[in-house]
Amino acid sequence: MKTHQLPNDAPYSDNQRAWLGGFFAGLHSQLVQNSSNAQTARTIHILYGSQTGTAESVARDAVKVAKAHGLNPVIKSMDEVDADALTKMETLLIVTSTYGEGEMPDNSQVLWSAVKADSMAKLENLQFTVLALGDTSYDLFCQAGIDWDNRLAELGAARLQTRIDCDVEYEEPAEKWINNVISELNPNSNDVTVNLTSVSLTPSVGDITVPSQYDRKNPFPAKLLVNRLLTTENSSKETRHYEISIAGSGLSYEAGDALCIVPTNCPDLVADILNAIECDGDEVIDGISLREALRTQFEIKTPSKELFNAIKERNQEILTEILESDYLWGRDTLDLLLENQNVAMDFYTRPKEFLALLKPLQHRAYSISSSGKANPETVHLTVASVRYNAFNRQHKGVCSTFLSDLTDENPPIRCFFTPNKVFRVPDNNDLPMIMVGPGTGIAPFRAFLQERQFRGAKGKNWLFFGDRNAETDFIYRDELEQMGKSGLLNRLDLAFSRDQEEKIYVQDKMREHGAELFAWLERGGYFFVCGDAYRMAKDVDKALHDVVKTHGEKSEQQAIDYVNQLKKDKRYVRDVY
Ligand SMILES: Cc1cc2nc3c(=O)[nH]c(=O)nc-3n(C[C@H](O)[C@H](O)[C@H](O)COP(=O)(O)OP(=O)(O)OC[C@H]3O[C@@H](n4cnc5c(N)ncnc54)[C@H](O)[C@@H]3O)c2cc1C
Ligand SMILES: NC(=O)c1ccc[n+]([C@@H]2O[C@H](COP(=O)([O-])OP(=O)(O)OC[C@H]3O[C@@H](n4cnc5c(N)ncnc54)[C@H](OP(=O)(O)O)[C@@H]3O)[C@@H](O)[C@H]2O)c1
Ligand SMILES: Cc1cc2nc3c(=O)[nH]c(=O)nc-3n(C[C@H](O)[C@H](O)[C@H](O)COP(=O)(O)O)c2cc1C
Q: Which of 97, 103, 367 to mutate to test the pocket of ligand 3 (most atoms within 8 A of CB)?
């Protein structure tokens, strides 16, 4: 059995891309030449539903493995196919993430509506399998993948393999799934196992060396250059501007991408947790002290389902009447331990068991607020620090306060980029952009405006921004006013929600200026939304439909079709969280 080490499909530099392209083409043609059935390579369709690129990158890995096996993979984003196309497919691999509250990612919504409709044709000639990406900290874990799996079976399609549901550590199960599925599809060529996860600084493929790169597996140690408060001292919230140096990394980014930060936990929280489980922290577990493991390796703020269940098993009364999600809202791991001290003390002699109940500490993503062309050596972020009082304690978000407490004296910040290929300034510099970004949702639009300025783009720009109070929370005010004066920002509509009795939100401003908004869309305008996914993005979507209906003089269904077409054309795209 031959094992190749291939890098993960994270962003590569142009050189690396060219190199890898050449390498894979070579590997492919060698395998195809050797294959007796090269002329009749079996076609497999690979569809991805992805919001921020993870599912897409897994799907692309599947393509590489399929090619290495002499198959003919056809990869598409779910918004590039219609329901009719599914009826013509014979073999389908679906890779999908889940968004919102158990919903489809944006690029799958139109296809999914058609597939779940009663009128959908049967798919009795189709064989399929699903890889679902998700996060067990959400109530509806991997729901989008579950929905696809159930619906395709209902339509008569046959499962090639049972669905797999991947949590945040998806790489290994995904690699296994890809290799298993592809070997099953081409049993004659199972002498090639592609190892997609073992990425080192200079991974080797046979005797060839891949150029080094920084990515999720190998984050770049970046220097923090600026940590500045954007809201005023007397604001009810704290939003900060960060500038991080990527000089010397060889990395580059585009406006619309996100930077992921790998945080460490607050030492005070670690100390409080050690206290609660009555350990001193010096206990050594798998070669590392308990204190250091809690600080650097485990999620100790948001409680895992496993910890919650372990506590529930021992303390039945905890959940008699209230829903788990209601109970957990705002409670962190320390709250659970303090409220269930009999259980917490159980861990005293078994700290290893306690660690086994925690999830690995994850990076957090931040939409970049600078243009990579205008700022090739720095990345700007706009971050709201999560701080709140609950259950008689001050609670802090792990990563946002890890950042806010940093000074330039601290060790470097470990970070990597995640590209968002659809959330981009239009290639056509003449088309209008409408950007809706209240709160930290403004971040990518600052980047978009910098990008348009850098390009000398003539297309019109309209920003809807808002936050709680104008006096304290009008972040980047000077810059926006300057952009207004220079003619870069053609319209700025503001919604400060708490400056008056009645709440005023960005969607109210959209409705107020609906006629003009519709006119901009009709002129080929792009509609971008960034910020809160749960309330704002849903209400803005509703307002967009209303504007199209009212000012386009359309029926309910025509307005839905119009907005769906915007999505298909990638002229309505969102970066919501
Ligand atoms: C693609 C993407 C882009 C993003 N871009 C940005 C950005 O530009 N700027 C930005 O600030 N964030 C952004 N985020 C959000 C960011 O990734 C983090 O989720 C955020 O900073 C909180 O992380 P944390 O580690 O500080 O908090 P965590 O330790 O993860 O804690 C957050 C949790 O605390 C609880 N909580 C928070 N507030 C309250 C409250 N008032 N009452 C009770 N419980 C509460 C909730 O359970 C919440 O899930 C983005 C997210 C994604 C996915
Ligand atoms: N879990 C929470 O309770 C909570 C609260 C705030 C922020 N967050 C999270 O904290 C991070 C940063 O927050 P942020 O600074 O971007 O934004 P934010 O503080 O959530 O809100 C920014 C602005 O959006 C307004 N808003 C609230 N509901 C809205 C709706 N349905 N439609 C349109 N606007 C609405 C807010 O008004 P009002 O606040 O006056 O209603 C405020 O003026 C995000 O990850 C966000 O999800 C969570
Ligand atoms: C706003 C938001 C909502 C999410 N909702 C869910 C969910 O309901 N269920 C789930 O299992 N995962 C959920 N996730 C986790 C994503 O599915 C997971 O991070 C996935 O790997 C993202 O893949 P993508 O980059 O291809 O979109 C959510 C993530 C975000 C940022």
A: 97
Ligand nearest to the backbone CA of 494: 2
Where does 97-214 show beta strands of DSSP type E?
127-133, 158-159, 164-166, 192-195, 204-205, 208-209
198 and 278 share a domain? no
Note the Cα 316 to chain centre separation in Å.
36
Categorize the per-residue pLDDT at 194 as very low, low, confident or very high, splitting at 50, 70 and 90.
low
- Residue numbers of the domain that contains 528: 433-576
CATH code for the domain in which residue 138 is found: 3.40.50.360
* Same domain membership, residue 204 and residue 273: no
**Exposure of 502 in the CB half-sphere (CA atoms within 13 A):** 3
The verdict on 47 and 184 lying in the same domain is yes
Ligand nearest to the CA of 366: 1
Same domain as 498, residue 570:
yes
Q: What pLDDT does 30 receive? A: 47
Within a domain: residue 336? yes
- Among the three residues 209, 236, 253, which one is the final residue of a domain in this structure? 209
Place of tokens 């990597």: 416
* CATH number of the domain residue 554 falls in: 3.40.50.80
Any domain includes 532: yes
Mean pLDDT check: name the lowest of 72-76, 211-215, 387-391, 519-523: 211-215
Backbone phi, psi, residue 168, to 5°: -55, -30
Q: Identify whether the C-beta of residue 233 lies closer than 8 Å to the C-beta of residue 466.
A: no
Which pLDDT band holds residue 1 (cuts at 50, 70, 90)? very low
Q: Give the position, in ligand 1's atom list, of the atom nearest the Cα of 301.
A: 29
Q: Are strands 461-467 and 433-436 parallel, antiparallel or unpaired?
A: parallel
Give the chain's mean pLDDT: 89
In this structure, the residue with its CA closest to atom 20 of ligand 1 is 400
pLDDT on residue 408: 74
Which is nearest to 387 in space by CA: 503, 529, 499, 235?
235
Which ligand 2 atom is at minimum distance from the Cα of 467?
A: 43
The two structure tokens encoding residue 64: 């590489």
Angle at the Cα of 314 from the Cα atoms of 391 and 285, rounded to 5 degrees: 85
At residue 203, the pLDDT reads 32
Report how far apart the first and last C-alpha atoms of the chain are (Å, whole number): 43
Question: What's the total number of domains in the chain?
Answer: 3
Most ligand 2 atoms within 8 A of CB, residue of 468, 473, 532, 534 to mutate:
532
Q: Domain for residue 368, yes or no? A: no
Q: Is the CB of 443 under 6 A from ligand 1?
A: yes
pLDDT over 90 at 137, yes or no: no
Strand partners, 298: 360
491 with 559, same domain? yes
